[in-house]
Structures are given as structure tokens and as C-alpha cells.
């Protein structure tokens, strides 16, 4: 029997997440650190937030100049992690810091791995997220309820030869070791956890930019190596759809970029992650030589549907 999902208390609420992840596509384990700017809304000795299938090793709260280490960490019940502190946390701003690790799983939810064959016939993997409705908690401890919104600054430590993607454009990259880099992404607008997204893999992309919007939007289609031209049709229609929706809704697209990515193992048809839309391969890619007119129509419909969510 699946554990009951519980509604989190409102004694503490998040404002901003600074999330760092280190995924390993050979061991299928990721480590993570998150610093969550919180508001303590009433004095408390306990903080609860969502976590599922994560190993939480450390937790502490910084209030002003004082650090309060959690005296106990319980992440076993109902997908809720409970941190208890030896001192009462006063009302006001604070920072909750957590260290954790988890599995890049094969269940097509949370932070999961997708398998494919390269042109040499070797088995390879990419890692991608699927958080709707309540699976961000499998990737990092968070208030994983749609009504509890915050901003997110995400960074990922990955091998140099791989691409890292998230909701926002890359802010900067720094070398960690000769063959490892840290990719820092710009901070998101206020949003729900289920729309947070990231991906790591050997990707190729093609790019265009809107021409009729007040603020140009960079549009890309990401695929596995060798498939990028099959994303040409989706790329061509993306600026047209963005511009059309901006006109009929009277609302500008709020992010500086919009990426589509084709994922070999994907349970849904597509998912409207803000700024990084994920698709089952057949829902995004179209081969002019072999695909049918019905397939082309379906790609157009799916892309338009997901952009409408934006």
C-alpha cells in the first residue's frame, strides 16, 4: 500500500532554493546540497518538508549569525522529512541547509535515467526529470506542493563532454577539475516545484530566435547525436506559436529561452516544464523522408499544447 501523502504545515515556508547537484551516469547516484531561504512564520522547534527515496545526511538552520544543527532527522514517514532542533527558531528569515544523495532511477519519474544506443551500438544514458505531480521530492528536499512557490537557482557538476540543461539559461560555467565543470543557471521566476527541470547528457541542438516579440526568445531543440535535423520542424513552428499566443493572450512569454528536448524513455507524451519542455521522441521529432502527414500534425499539436502551458 502506497504511503499517504500529507499536507505540510505552514509554520515555515520557502522563498528561494539554491540547489547544487552532482549526477553520476556511471553509478546512477547523485549527491546534492540545497540552501533554502525560508520564512519562519511562527516560533518552532521543528521543520517539515517533502523527501522521497533520498538519504539526508545533514541539516541545519542559520538564523542571523547562529547555526542550529538538527538534533534529529526523520525521513521515513509519508514522504515527509522532519528536522528537529534543540532551540526554538524565532519568527523571521532563516536559511535551511541540507546535504543529501539519491538514485538516478529507472522509473521514469523524479530524477531518472534514459537508455539509448549510440551509433557504435554501445549503451549510453542521459538523465532527465519528470516531477509532475509530486516527484520533485525524489530529486531534492522541498515543499513539493503546487501552491508553495519559490525561486530556484540551480547548478550542476557534470563532465565537460556532457551538456547540462535547466529551466533558465546558463549564467556561467567554471572548471572543477580538468574534465569536470560546474554549470550555473540563472534564477527562475517564482514557480512551483513540479515545473522545475534539469537534464544531463550528450545532446546536440539547433536554434532560432523569435522576431516579433518585444523581448526576443531563444528557441532550441535538443536531441541525441545524429537526430537533430529531425527536430527542424518543431524548431520552425516554435517562434510562430510563441508569437501567436503572445498576441491572442496579451501576455508576453516570461522567460528568455525555450528549449524542447527529446527523451527516449518518457512516460508521458510531453511535459510543460517551464523553459525546458520534455517530450517522448515521437512527439517531438519528425523525419521529412519517412514520417507521415499525421505524424507531422501530431508534432505540431503537441508542441503548441506544451507552449500554451508556458
From TrEMBL:
Record has Transferase as a keyword: no
The protein's name: Aminopeptidase
Keyword Membrane part of the UniProt annotation: no
Pfam family, one: Peptidase_M1
Key words of the record: Aminopeptidase, Hydrolase, Metal-binding, Metalloprotease, Protease, Zinc
Binding site for Zn(2+): 305, 309
Names of required cofactors: Zn(2+)
Domain Peptidase M1 membrane alanine aminopeptidase as annotated: residue spans: 233-310
InterPro entries cross-referenced by the UniProt entry: Aminopeptidase_N-like_N, Aminopeptidase_N-like_N_sf, M1_APN-typ, Peptidase_M1, Peptidase_M1_aminopeptidases, Peptidase_M1_dom, Peptidase_M4/M1_CTD_sf
Highest rank taxon of the organism: Eukaryota
Organism placement in taxonomy: Eukaryota, Fungi, Fungi incertae sedis, Mucoromycota, Mortierellomycotina
Similarity comment text for this entry: Belongs to the peptidase M1 family.
Bound cofactor: record note: Binds 1 zinc ion per subunit.
All copies of domain Aminopeptidase N-like N-terminal, residue ranges: 14-195
GO biological process: peptide catabolic process; proteolysis
CC terms in the record's Gene Ontology section: cytoplasm; extracellular space; membrane
Residues at the catalytic site: 306 (proton acceptor)
Coiled-coil region list: none
GO terms, molecular function: metalloaminopeptidase activity; peptide binding; zinc ion binding
Cleavable signal peptide: none
